Each structure stands twice: as structure tokens, then as C-alpha cells.
UniProtKB/TrEMBL annotation:
This is Regulator of RpoS. The gene is rssB_1. Keywords: Phosphoprotein. It comes from Dyadobacter linearis. SUPFAM superfamilies: CheY-like (SSF52172). Residues 3-124, 147-275 form the Response regulatory domain.
Length: 288
């Protein structure tokens, strides 16, 4: 049973979010809270009980979403908890501020229950490791090809990923790197404009050791920050389901962590949906 802390002062929005989550995800427990103060108080009161994720509104009384996010990401014992902010505001300044503070994803509140279901599918895949096929073909808001970098040292997995992505999302421009060293060389060779054109990075944690994957995650974050480029979403896709690896990845600002299944083809069949969610459901900083 995975817990989701749903934090929103609007009763109707909480109801829609709860119904959507319960319609697509099994074995979840939703804890409803109405402001950031309650969220921080609950976490403080039961430090041994952690949610699988926090889904939080921005505009709330007492302690708003931005303030609660800042408090969560400033503490070593809470930094690894994934936080998805969903808000009515599309203001780029607020979106950028949320990512600067370490939010894992930002979603503009949908206008329909269908939109809430889409949001629930996205967070279920990205943060709960529950694979719920969306169905249909990959699509984006425009015809511009999306640029994806996949860092995967297992050649068999790389071949399978290439095949499925080419089959299901032919418009995607996918670049594969096979090691920490090759990935560093690739990104170092890019100029600022080319780096800013990357829409998503999918990173295998064990390259072949976890230290290499974690070091690369840190290097990528610092490199993009030094270049003044808005945060590129980094999704860790690993065979490890160990909490140590999951917490370490989130603590170092991975946007999401997905576990490969025993049958790789099953995990990789959802790469298309993963790319689609980060393209058309989740809002990113301006120029991203």
C-alpha cells in the first residue's frame, strides 16, 4: 500500500484528484490535507512514515505550496520525497520558481475529469511505478520532434528501447549513450543552444555501478545550472527497486524513478507514454 499526501484547500479539486487517482491506481492510500502547515506537521509528527509522493496545490492559506516545497527540499530527511505541484497558475515565473526549489514535476490543474485522469496516469507511472497503458499513439502539442537522451549501458536493453521507440514514436529524436564517460563527452560537446534543446534524459542508475550513475546525475544537474539552462527532466530507469537507490536518486534531484520489471520489454513498452507525459501533461520552465 503506497500513501499519497494530497494537499489542497479546495474541496472540489481534492475530490477530483482523489477520484482520478483511485480510478487508475490500485493499492494506494490517499491522505488529504488542506495546507502546507498540515503537511509539514504530519511529516514532523511521524518521521518513520513517509508518503510515496506529495501532490500539492500552490495557493493555500497559512503555508502555501512554494513555502512547503522549500521546507521539504531544504531538509536532508525530507529531500528525497517526490513532490508534484498542481496549480491553476501557468505563470512561467512560478513554474520556474518551483523547479528552482526542487519540485519533481509541475502540472497545471486540468479543466475536466478527463484531464485529471490524464494527470493521475502520469503520476501513477512516474512516481508510483504502476504501469497503466494510456493507449493511442504518441502525440505532442506540435509537430516539432522531441529530443531524448537515453544513457543505458546494457546493449540488449538499448536495442529493445530503440526498437520500441522507433515503432511507437517515430518523431522522437533519440540519442543513446552507453556509459558515464560517453555521456559526459556528449554533453560537453554541446553548445548552450543544443543543450537547451534536450527535452528529457533517461538515465540507467547502474553504469555499471550506482556510484557512476549518481555521480553523473550530480554532474548533469550542475552542468545545466552552470550554463544557465532551465532544468532538463532526468528520469532514472533502473533494475534496482532498493529504497536506498530510490532515495539517493531523488535526493540528488532526479525528477522521477522507475523500476525495470523482470521482463524488460514490459518496462520499455511504457517509454512512449513516459515521453508523452513529460511532453504534454507536465509543465516545464520557460524555454524548455
Amino acid at each position: 500500500m503506497k500513501q499519497i499526501y494530497l494537499v489542497d484547500d479546495d474541496d472540489d479539486d481534492r475530490l477530483l484528484a482523489r477520484q482520478a487517482l483511485e480510478s487508475v491506481a490500485e493499492e494506494i492510500e490517499i491522505v488529504e490535507l488542506t495546507n502546507g502547515y498540515q503537511l509539514l506537521a504530519v511529516l514532523e509528527a511521524a518521521p518513520s512514515v513517509e508518503p510515496a509522493m506529495v501532490l500539492m496545490d500552490m495557493n493555500m492559506p497559512l503555508v502555501n505550496g512554494i513555502e512547503a516545497l522549500a521546507a521539504l527540499k531544504s531538509r536532508d530527511d525530507w529531500r528525497h520525497i517526490p513532490v508534484v505541484m498542481f496549480s491553476t497558475t501557468e505563470n512561467p515565473k512560478f513554474v520556474e520558481k518551483a523547479y528552482q526549489l526542487g519540485v519533481n514535476a509541475y502540472i497545471v490543474k486540468p479543466a475536466s475529469f478527463e484531464g485529471y485522469t490524464r494527470m493521475a496516469q502520469a503520476v501513477t507511472l512516474c512516481f508510483l511505478n504502476r504501469y497503466m497503458p494510456r493507449g493511442g499513439e504518441f502525440y505532442t502539442d506540435n509537430d516539432i520532434a522531441k529530443n531524448i537522451v537515453i544513457i543505458e549501458d546494457n546493449p540488449d536493453h538499448a536495442v529493445l528501447m530503440k526498437f520500441l521507440l522507433k515503432k511507437n514514436a517515430p518523431k522522437l529524436n533519440v540519442v543513446f549513450q552507453t556509459s558515464q564517460e560517453s555521456a559526459v563527452s556528449f554533453f560537453q560537446s554541446l553548445g548552450e543552444k543544443a543543450s537547451a534543446a534536450i527535452d528529457l534524459i533517461i538515465l540507467d542508475l547502474y553504469l555499471p555501478d550506482r556510484e557512476q550513475g549518481l555521480d553523473l546525475l550530480v554532474w548533469l544537474r550542475s552542468t545545466f545550472m552552470e550554463r544557465g539552462i532551465p532544468a532538463v527532466p532526468i528520469i532514472v530507469l533502473s533494475a534496482s527497486s532498493h529504497q536506498r537507490d530510490i532515495k539517493a536518486s531523488y535526493g540528488l534531484q532526479a525528477n522521477a524513478y522507475l523500476t525495470k520489471t523482470a521482463e524488460p520489454a514490459e518496462s520499455f513498452s511504457y517509454l512512449t507514454d513516459l515521453c508523452s507525459y513529460w511532453s504534454d501533461t507536465i509543465s516545464l520552465p520557460a524555454n524548455r
